[in-house]
Write the structure tokens for this entry.
Amino acid sequence: MPNLRNAKLLNTITKLVGKNNKIGKLLSGYEKLKEANYISSHFSSYLVPVIASSDALRNEVFKIRHGVYCEELGFEPVKESGLELDDFDAFSFHCLIKHCRSSAYAGTVRIVRPTEANQQLPIEKYCLNSITDKDLNPSNFDRKDICEVSRLAVPKEFRRRQMDNHKGAGVGIINRATYSETELRCFPFIAVGLYFAAAALALENEIKHAYVMMEPRLARSMGFVGIKFKQIGPVVDYHGKRAPYYINQDLLHTKLSPSFLKMLKDIRENIASQ
């Protein structure tokens, strides 16, 4: 009850003093800071990023991917091993999101990072002709400066609620119609945490340019929380309707709200400590 009274009092004072008043600005800044701390602390209370730096952890990655990409979505054939992996995994960084209370893994993502001249990004090997923005073609940059975010997957057991069982939820698409604006700002999305983990891996390894091949509705979903990918080509048919997207550090930091910048900062510190 005291917290509710304090919130009502702050709202009343803010209305009285007006946004142009210094006190109003201070109160507005205080509310944004509270929200930023809430989002990040709420996420870190339940979920933590884990770099898959051992064979055992990488097998957890491949199990989750098999469940989503082979069994659920049918993008790849079901394998007897129960593991989904490809040639790009040999030069990729992998990350998991662990559910703290159960120690189960709530999702995975990788960044493909070529280090040799003959190593390509998946987007270069399979969809290069879809990139029509000549300035942002990955061939313009050094191999060490590019990466591709791919194979994001969230297992079914972490999509228990009805609103999280819609088509596409396994690869992070937010069903916006079921969320209020408050929830869009404050709900600790696993997919958002995975993209931030990928961003943290790229930043820590000084990678300048990131690419992703994804459905436009997934790009819009990430846009709801301020992760603004730049579309660099038309929609093509590749495991469904997908388009090439690009993002770099400047685009990421200028579009994110203070709330999610705080969450990214905390995830990056966690990744750096590993």
Observations:
- The longest strand covers residues 92-99.
